[in-house]
Amino acid sequence: MSTTRRNWLISLLAILVCALFVAAQTKHAITHEDVWLMKRVSAPIPSPDGKWVVFSVVEPAYDEKEVVTDLWIVAADGKSAPRKITNTKGAESGATWLPDGKSIAFSARRDGDDVNQIYILNIAEGGEAVRVTMLSTGARAPQFSPDGKKLLFTSTVFPGALNDEDNKKIAAEL
């Protein structure tokens, strides 16, 4: 065996021993913090044609202002890596596919929003999500009619309020 090869093998062995020593030193019992700060994945939402799956990933934090929740998409056949499709400070939730399978709707509080609103993101063409609601009491849990022409969502309203202006007046009086 040549001296160069022997020195190379000794160096490689030294690196492996060091790596094993460092790995042995970093092992620890699972703590409450480890579990609490573990990323969480929501239930998968398959596209109408079954080719894509959207899901949210929550990156928890002890400070609520530092929690990150974004939407991800992956091919249902698993042949491609998941990719993040939203990347904002606010959390996205309640994702649902439009019946045509080209877009998703979700609830989020983005820059300029006082409360959560419904946004639609065109998956087929890309680009930014477009806000489609603007209610003082917010909107969440979007769903579409089978033809995709009507949007159903949940919003909190005050008793006796017949429209958003009534909600604003009642909220101002509180």
Describe this structure in words.
- The chain folds into two domains: 3-28; 34-173, TolB, C-terminal domain (Neuraminidase, 6 Propeller).
- 22% of the residues lie in helices and 29% in strands.
- It contains three helices and eleven strands.
- The chain has helices at 3-26, 32-36, 164-173, and strands at residues 40-41, 45-46, 52-59, 68-75, 83-84, 92-97, 103-108, 117-122, 130-131, 140-144, 151-154.
- The strands form three sheets. Strands 1, 2, 3, 4 and 5 form a five-stranded antiparallel beta sheet that branches.
- Strand 10 (140-144) and strand 11 (151-154) form a beta hairpin.
- It is flat, with a radius of gyration of 24 Å.
Q: What is the assigned CATH homologous superfamily of the largest domain?
A: TolB, C-terminal domain
Low-confidence stretches: none
Quote the beta fraction.
Answer: 25-35%
Q: What structural class should be given to the helix and strand makeup? A: alpha+beta
Major pleated sheet: 5 strands, antiparallel
Number of strands: 11
CATH level-two architecture of the largest domain: 6 Propeller
User: Helix count, per DSSP?
Assistant: 3
Number of domains: 2
CATH topology of the largest domain, which one? Neuraminidase
Annotation keywords:
5-stranded antiparallel beta sheet, 174 residues, 3 helices, alpha+beta, 4-stranded antiparallel beta sheet, Neuraminidase
Break the fold down into its secondary structure elements and pairings:
Elements: H1 3-26, H2 32-36, E1 40-41, E2 45-46, E3 52-59, E4 68-75, E5 83-84, E6 92-97, E7 103-108, E8 117-122, E9 130-131, E10 140-144, E11 151-154, H3 164-173
Antiparallel strand pairs: 1-3, 2-3, 3-4, 4-5, 6-7, 7-8, 8-9, 10-11
